[in-house]
């Protein structure tokens, strides 16, 4: 049996004053809100989302993705509020030219690795071969100092 798509791209209609459908125009009720608003307003709306929702929204459609990816100010606020490794790390990423989103992702991963080390998840490791993959990332001297102090306290 052949699969048939029930959605037709060629039949786009809109309503005229008498609520009759006119071929060729898009129904304003089905129009993407970000296409009707100024970009600044869309960014303001997206700024109300948490990071997970923002990432999911960027997958919704190409237009939303373009707005979210192009808006460095959306990612800046999250990057500065997330538990980053060190302000020096953030500043270093920015000096190199990383976007706020890249800086956020890098520092989030570093933060996760730091928390796992500080919780003692890797306390019983006997050699470098025993370290699980994805548990290491470049950390600054201060962070390694904190980890070493935690290990010595254990």
Automatic annotation (TrEMBL):
InterPro entries in alphabetical order: F-box-like_dom_sf, F-box_dom
Top-level taxon in the UniProt lineage: Eukaryota
Pathway: Protein modification; protein ubiquitination
The keyword Nucleotide-binding appears for this protein: no
One Pfam family, short name: F-box-like
Residues annotated as domain F-box: 31-78
Keywords for this protein: Ubl conjugation pathway
Biological process terms in GO annotation: protein ubiquitination; SCF-dependent proteasomal ubiquitin-dependent protein catabolic process
One Gene Ontology cellular component: cytoplasm
Name under which the protein is recorded: F-box only protein 48-like
Organism: Sinocyclocheilus anshuiensis
Lineage: Eukaryota, Metazoa, Chordata, Craniata, Vertebrata
């Amino acid at each position: 049996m052949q699969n048939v798509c029930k959605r037709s791209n060629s039949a786009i209609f809109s309503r005229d004053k008498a609520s009759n459908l006119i071929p060729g125009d898009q129904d304003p009720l089905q129009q993407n809100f970000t296409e009707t608003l100024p970009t600044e307003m869309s960014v303001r709306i997206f700024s109300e989302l948490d990071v997970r929702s923002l990432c999911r929204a960027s997958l919704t459609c190409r237009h939303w993705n373009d707005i979210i990816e192009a808006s460095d100010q959306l990612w800046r606020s999250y990057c500065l509020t997330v538990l980053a490794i060190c302000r020096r790390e953030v500043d270093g990423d920015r000096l190199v030219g990383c976007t706020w989103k890249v800086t956020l992702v890098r520092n989030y991963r570093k933060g996760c690795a730091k928390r796992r080390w500080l919780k003692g998840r890797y306390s019983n490791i006997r050699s470098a071969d025993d370290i699980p993959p994805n548990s290491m990332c470049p950390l600054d001297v201060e962070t390694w100092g904190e980890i070493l102090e935690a290990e010595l306290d254990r």
